[in-house]
Amino acid sequence: MTERSQRTAADDAEGVALPPPRAPLSGRTWREIGYLLVNLPLDVAAFAVLVVWLVLGAGLSLTVVGLPLLASGLMACRLYGKLERARARAWLGVVVAEPSPPHARERGFFGWLWARLTDPVAWRHALFAVVRLPWGIFTFTVTLVSLFVAWPVLPWLARWLSNADRVMVRGLLSPSDELERRIAELESDRMVVTDTAAADLRRIERDLHDGAQARLVALAMGLGLAKEKLLEGQADETVAAMVEEAHGEVKLALQELRDLARGIHPAILTDRGLGPALASLAGRCTVPVTTSVDLAERPAPAIEGIVYFTVSELLQNVSKHSGARRASVEVWRSRDRLLLQVHDDGRGGARLDGGSGMAGLADRLGAVDGLFVLDSPEGGPTRVTAEVPWRQRPSGAAERRGAGGR
């Protein structure tokens, strides 16, 4: 064996340094490569449409067609964002929630126009289209060159570049989580408030029609008959009985009107606050109730009303369904929240879906960013804890109330 052959054999025995192993071109890698190569044509097209549409709309904004054209361009930006979210979901595995549609505060054409022109989602999509053009040129060039020249490092390059795409998609095409969540909640809460207000109006109309109105009609008829008797000179016991009956109807009608007014907004709550108002509710409950209201100052009237009617309905449930021997109501403030707790030692078993009105209470409190927690195991006891935002009473409210009472 020659010396050269001996050196070659020795090198083979020791092991010559081999090229580093390259990452396999998996299906995921090919999807990332495809995404990066398609970036350029889509980004060029989106940028061209964006520039023509938005710049033309802004330039003609002083004319009749300018602002509607600009609004249409922003709507197109939303469609572009939807396309990019679908592409990122299919090729990069990035799942981004769809943002809420723009919300017009006013009806009509101008409300629609203003909602589109001030749509933050559409403007972020427009920014995405602007940023993507240079990025698309860069990613297309690097990926194409690596595909034919530097293919051993292509899998790592594709992953790094597509990760940057993932960040941009999540940052500019995803909804603003907190804002979108609040918008969705407010949409739901608005429906709850609307339904509640409609139900309250129907209840008031029904109570007026079936109660005080019917009594006042009967009173008018009775007084009319008594007047005829008097005009006929029949001032006898019949007339006296009719007047006495009318007097009784007046008292009943007045009581029903007081009850109805208390159901709308009790005077004791307006004049004296939650402490006396809740004590008055406790006095009308068929179960002995203790109340504790620890508030250094009064919250806004709307919050007082929400707490009052929540306690009122809960105590009605205690009277009707609990079989309790005693109950308690506590109200206190914790930082920027007003908390209340109603407890009874009854049989328990209350549920939000049990038909006792608990679900309606939870919806009403949720409509004002409140919370409602029900703890009612079978056999009792039942504890309801609720929270509502603390909203400061408007300054001068007490003075105006006092001036009105003098």
Keywords:
alpha+beta; Heat Shock Protein 90; five-stranded mixed β-sheet; 9% strand
Record the SSE blueprint.
Layout: H1 3-14, H2 27-59, H3 66-91, H4 109-117, H5 120-148, H6 154-173, H7 177-231, H8 237-264, H9 267-272, H10 274-284, E1 289-294, H11 301-322, E2 327-334, E3 337-344, H12 358-366, E4 371-375, E5 382-389, H13 397-405
Parallel strand pairs: 1-2
Antiparallel strand pairs: 2-3, 3-5, 4-5
Helix pairs in contact: 2-3, 2-5, 2-6, 3-4, 3-5, 3-6, 5-6, 7-8, 10-11, 11-12
Written overview of the protein:
It is built from 13 helices and 5 strands. A hairpin with a 2-residue loop joins strand 2 and strand 3 (337-344). The longest helix is centred in the middle third of the chain and has 55 residues, at 177-231. A 5-stranded mixed beta sheet has the order 1-2-3-5-4, with helices on one face. The protein has 406 residues and is of the alpha+beta class. The chain has 3 domains: 27-175, no CATH class; 186-264; 267-405, 2-Layer Sandwich (Heat Shock Protein 90), CATH 3.30.565. It starts with a helix and ends with a helix.
Sequence of strands across the biggest β-sheet: 1-2-3-5-4
**How much beta, percentage-wise?**
5-15%
Number of strands: 5
**Molecular shape:** elongated
Distance between the termini: 126 Å
H-E string: HHHHHHHHHHEHEEHEEH
Protein structure class: alpha+beta
The helix content is: 55-70%
Poorly predicted runs of 5 or more residues: 1-23, 397-406
Mean pLDDT: 77
